[in-house]
Design brief:
Blueprint: E1 11-12, H1 22-28, H2 38-55, E2 61-66, H3 69-80, E3 86-91, H4 94-105, E4 109-114, H5 123-132, E5 137-141, E6 143-144, E7 149-150, H6 153-163, E8 166-170, H7 182-185, E9 189-191, E10 204-209, H8 211-218, H9 231-238, H10 251-267, H11 269-289, E11 305-309, H12 316-327, E12 329-330, E13 332-333, E14 342-346, H13 354-369
Parallel strand pairs: 1-12, 3-4, 3-5, 5-8, 8-9
Antiparallel strand pairs: 2-10, 6-7, 9-10, 11-14, 13-14
Helix pairs in contact: 1-10, 2-10, 5-6, 10-11, 11-13, 12-13
The chain binds pyridoxal-5'-phosphate.
Pyridoxal-5'-phosphate is lined by residues 16, 68-70, 73, 95, 141, 145, 170, 172-173, 193, 195, 202.
């Protein structure tokens, strides 16, 4: 078997995974130790402290769930939804749709309030919908990776709080690239993933849950219908003097996350956000100079995920193939209704560097000239 021998370095400039920081690779290769070893418990405790800083929260229960970002999404709904609950999802892309699907599978009474893909959730229309009935949960994606649009989670938060519903925010792509101030936004539960702006491979889903959501979890009429993601048990594994075994934490992935959070906090959150913004501006300038256009209005663009219009008559798949085969650069295709219409260029975490921006623009220019 020689599959591994084919692996060479690719510059990951798609919607995730993104480039991994060298410190994270080093951490991943460290010796595996026991998951109840005091040294490992110390690592778990340090991760919780760093995650609170990165997520902008004082929530005691702030921890990485085992699994990719989707495990964070699943955990959010499986813990907070009870059969028949009224759930409102503000949808403007693939990941909003997916939230609604997850909630429906749990027997929730789900309504999707949809906004045109490529535009943000409109706070006024959202407000009307939130006031329309008594919702148990309102959910939204902060950075909609399928379109490159930033949603106004900070404007929706107070409306949800006033309505008495719980507020779930997907911060998979935003965390580490733009501010995710969980407490300021008023999110009751917020989850993320390691493979986007945290410069870490896929495998963990940072999650934070506040008092109001914990109260709902504790007062459930029925057990959480998923054993592996049941936060009421996972909490006891991640806190207290005595740790109750639930499942074996993915030890080396947690080393990796520890290193990734350390790197991010050493750089400083404001500096990291500023770097993403600068690289985005440089990319926009470069793309514009070679005649490419970005479909999302400037005010709502995400710095870490850039939707680019595929020019008329260009075979978008062939361009991506040439980028990968000739230049070792991966970019993403459009999803759903945007398939074939856009490329998605990611500038996430360690990927967001000047040299990468220059390379992708030059490569696109050469390919499109042919
Ligand atoms: C990538 C992504 C997810 C899913 O994360 P995985 O790591 O692929 O499981 C969820 N929500 C958003 C907004 C994402 O970009």
């Amino acid at each position: 078997m020689n599959g591994l021998q084919s692996i060479t370095k690719t510059t990951l400039m798609g919607p995730g995974p993104s480039c991994v920081h060298p410190e994270v690779y080093k951490a991943l290769a460290m010796p595996t130790i026991g998951h109840l070893d005091p040294r490992f418990i110390n690592i778990m405790d340090e991760i919780k402290v760093m995650l609170r800083q990165v997520m902008g929260t004082k929530n005691e229960i702030t921890l990485p769930m085992s699994g990719t970002g989707s495990a964070g999404m699943e955990a959010a709904f499986v813990n907070l939804v009870e059969r028949g609950d009224k759930v409102l999802v503000l949808v403007n892309g693939v990941f909003g749709k997916r939230m609604a699907e997850v909630a429906r599978r749990l027997g929730a009474d789900v309504e999707e309030c949809e906004f045109t893909w490529g535009t943000p959730v409109d706070p006024d229309r959202a407000a009307e919908k939130i006031r329309e009935k008594k919702w148990q949960i309102v959910a939204i994606v902060h950075a909609e990776t399928s379109t490159g649009v930033r949603n106004p989670v900070e404007l929706i938060g107070p409306m949800v709080r006033e309505s008495g519903a719980l507020y779930i925010v997907d911060a998979v792509t935003s965390l580490g690239g733009i501010p995710v101030e969980v407490d300021a936004i008023g999110a009751d539960l917020c989850y993320s993933g390691t493979q986007k702006c945290l410069s870490c491979p896929p495998g963990l889903a940072p999650l934070t849950i506040g008092e109001r959501a914990i109260a709902k979890l504790k007062n459930r009429q029925t057990k959480v219908p998923n054993w592996y993601l049941d936060l009421s048990m996972i909490m006891d594994y991640w806190q207290g003097a005595k740790r109750a075994y639930h499942h074996t934490a993915p030890i080396n992935m947690l080393y990796g996350l520890h290193a990734a959070l350390s790197v991010l906090l050493d750089e400083g959150l404001p500096k990291a956000y500023e770097r993403h913004r600068r690289m985005h501006e440089q990319l926009v300038k470069g793309l514009t100079s070679i005649g490419l256009e970005l479909p999302v209005a400037e005010a709502y663009r995400l710095p870490m995920l850039n939707a680019v219009t595929v020019p008329e008559g260009v075979d978008e798949g062939a361009v991506r193939k040439a980028l990968l085969e000739t230049y070792d650069i991966e970019i993403g295709a459009g999803l759903g209704p945007l398939a074939g219409k856009i490329w998605r260029i990611g500038l996430m975490g360690y990927t967001a560097q000047e040299a990468n921006v220059e390379r992708v623009v030059r490569a696109l220019q050469e390919i499109l000239k042919r």
